[in-house]
Amino acid sequence: MNRTIAILLALLMVLSLAACGGGGQTTPTPEPTASTPESTPEPTPEPTAEATAEPTSQPSEMPIEDYLTSTEWKAVLDYDNMYQERVFYFEKDGSGTMMITDNAGWDYTWSTNANGIRLKVEYSTAYSSGILVFNFTIYETLNSKRLIDSENYITLVPINDYDSESNIIKDELVKSVEELDWQKAHDLQISNNAKYKQEYTGKTFKWTAVVDTIGSIYCNMSIGGSKINSITVYMSNDDLGSISKGDTITVIGRLDEYSDHMYNAFIVK
Description:
Helix 5 (182-191) packs across helix 6 (193-199). The protein contains seven helices and 14 strands. The strands form two sheets. It has an eight-stranded antiparallel barrel with strand order 1-2-3-4-5-6-7-8. It has a five-stranded mixed β-barrel with strand order 10-11-12-14-13. By secondary structure, it is an alpha+beta fold. The protein folds into two domains: 64-166, Lipocalin (Beta Barrel); 178-267, CATH 2.40.50.140.
């Protein structure tokens, strides 16, 4: 029996040693593989009012038909023996009225085309009747629009922009026009009227002379007091009211086909 006990104790010792040996082994840790380190995302900034606002685009330009009918249009430097700065009213149905005085006007029809605006006026006076046709080209300015018919020597601007556009147009003319040698022009008109028309008729010039007489819509100016050297100059009532007989003034205006009338004139200060 003692022998049996001894064998059992020996077996217990062997088992104990085996258990201790197994507990000392560790599972090997795998080597880390090369990889791109994960970057820490940057914090998203709080949205500002500017960042969250929807992008805005420039407002679409108003159709010219709507622009025409949204305001009255006044002619700039529009002075002759019949008119004093006409005012045009465009209606949406293609009709309109051209006021030639504060109390009198003529009806017209208008339409747009690829070149601009065509306007037809049916007029009647105590002396005649007929049809006037205007073909306006639309010009953009810095802050406004102009309707220009070069053949009929007329420029329209929105009535609210009249003062500013008038001053701009006058400044443009002061910088660009030539001095009129009236004697040379008059002599050419007598000797070769066809050539005179090519070089002078409808052209705008600057002229300095003496005021002889003052009428309701014009003044007569001359060099040396001679009626032969005289031009009838049509200008605004404001300009006429600022001058006196005998004054020497400088005007800018459009010369007619006979060299004795100047239209659409103004005084150069």
